[in-house]
Please model this.
Amino acid sequence: MDCRMALRGSDKKMSLYFRNSTNSTIQVAIFYHASRCGFVFVGQTGILSTWYRLAPGQTREVVTGNVGDRTIYYYAESVSRNLVWSGSFPIHVPNYNFSGCWIWNINGDLCNNCRRVGFKTLNIQRGFVNFTVNLITNSAQRKTKLKNVRMVLPTKRVKRKSKLNDRKKLPRSQ
Model:
């Protein structure tokens, strides 16, 4: 067997990946604690990275390095915001692309052009160097035997009303 062929499957970097298995474009924000960001009295700091865009079928690396034995928080939504993957860890996030140190419980008044969203907690077990979060839309897609892949259904689906239903009913003429 050619050595180059044997290495090809294992030369992937140690990282956290997100995969979009929906028919919609998805944007993802992540947050994780990092000692290099220091400590402030109003709350814990960490690395916040927003917004990774994933086209349908696309997989994207969002954290480089060994991700085993770490807690990473994420929030994902379709660009139309009708599909949302959220949790109970509230963070004010900017509505623009950002990557750097961030105070997770910053007051919304202190952050121009931000909104508060709930991040999901992802606890990655020790021993995993790579991990993939696969964003899916139905439970039939959930079947996987891989322990380093988490299949995640949306926590919220928003049905948009048609434009006809959005119009106010006019009073009937007598």
The first strand starts at residue 15 and ends at 20.
